[in-house]
């Protein structure tokens, strides 16, 4: 066996890692603080879980990846457009 070592980036999208306080907030269930980006003002949040077809999920994921967008943010934006206040 050779002494060759291979390193790779564990985060392929190079997203900045959240600060430890955001991780604590997420674990405690306060995702409004956990998802907060600098300068972003978020409302209190609720988690929504539902099933979609695997091929639809793949299309959404691949489209978001091609556009360099976060899948969750894109889906939130679409829901806001279809369900205005």
What's the end-to-end separation, in Å? 63 Å
Strand percentage: under 5%
Q: What does the main sheet amount to? A: none
Helix content: 40-55%
Summed over residues and divided by their number, the pLDDT gives a mean of 80
Q: Poorly predicted ranges (pLDDT <50, ≥5 residues)?
A: none
Q: What gross morphology would you assign?
A: extended
Compute the CA-based radius of gyration. 17 Å
Write up what this structure looks like:
With 85 residues, the chain is mainly alpha-helical. It has a domain at 51-85. The protein has helices at residues 20-27, 31-34, 54-67, 71-82. The protein starts with 19 loop residues before the first helix and ends with a helix. The relative contact order is 0.07. The model has no long low-confidence stretch (mean pLDDT 80).
Summarize the structure.
The chain is mostly helical. Helices cover 45% and strands 0% of the residues.
Topology:
Blueprint: H1 20-27, H2 31-34, H3 54-67, H4 71-82
Keywords, separated by commas or semicolons:
85 residues; mainly alpha; 4 helices; 45% helix
